[in-house]
Amino acid sequence: MATTGQRKRLGREELQRIIDLCRAVEERGLDPFLINVEDLIAVIREYFPEWKLPEDLVLDAETIQHLASVIKMQSEWVKHRSTSLYTDPFLLEEKIRRLSREQLGTIFLKSWRPIVEMEQISPHSLMQAIRYWNELIPMDERWQKTQFIEIETGTATRNELVEQKVLADKMFSEELDTLWKELIQKTGEKEKIEYWDFIGASTFEETVRRAYLTSFLVTYGYATMEIDRLEEIIFLKPYKKPVSFDKKQVTSVPVPISFDDWMKWKEGRMD
Question: Which end of the chain is less crowded, N or C, counting CB atoms within 10 A of the terminal residue's CB?
């Protein structure tokens, strides 16, 4: 039989164990129902008559405080489940297992809301079809031979074709060479220039045309692109002489040109 001193020491250990268990639930967010409150209250009630010293009574009060905190967590858990119409998945599975096939089919039909589209010929649609066929031009009138108008052929000068946008004012190679020299001139001693500062023009159409020609300058080795990944800025750097590339080493870099981007550049707000 344990002595009074041994029983007090055992009681203090039991109370400290209860406090540690409650703290674990509070701090780690564990399921509060892992603690059997009734059993712990029985332990506290069993050792309460032994306490005479103030420190033992303080330990007993601390134990009750932590246990009350766990009870509050259990209450909040039940309140949350009840207000959210929570159903335990294991209980739900057990209920489904107990249902027969007929009961499951009945529940499915009650909850099933299929999307159905029905197409059929109505009197209104028939009248529209009849009206359509009655208003058609007879076949002999629809299939009449096409009448050709004979026009004498003539000639057009190169200037007329340029005005009609059939021919460009300059040869493509000449345009590239002109643009390349412009890029070298604008770059100057800086060796490179921002992409938009070079292709930007007074009109959006001209900007697109310059961007189109600039892509060929890069492809044909007249210039190269440098991209600042941190600032997301594209630079153009011309070569003094065209450079030939190995096709396996060439990488395509798509650069979108939108009307909004052009407006931002024109207003000096390009990011």
Answer: N
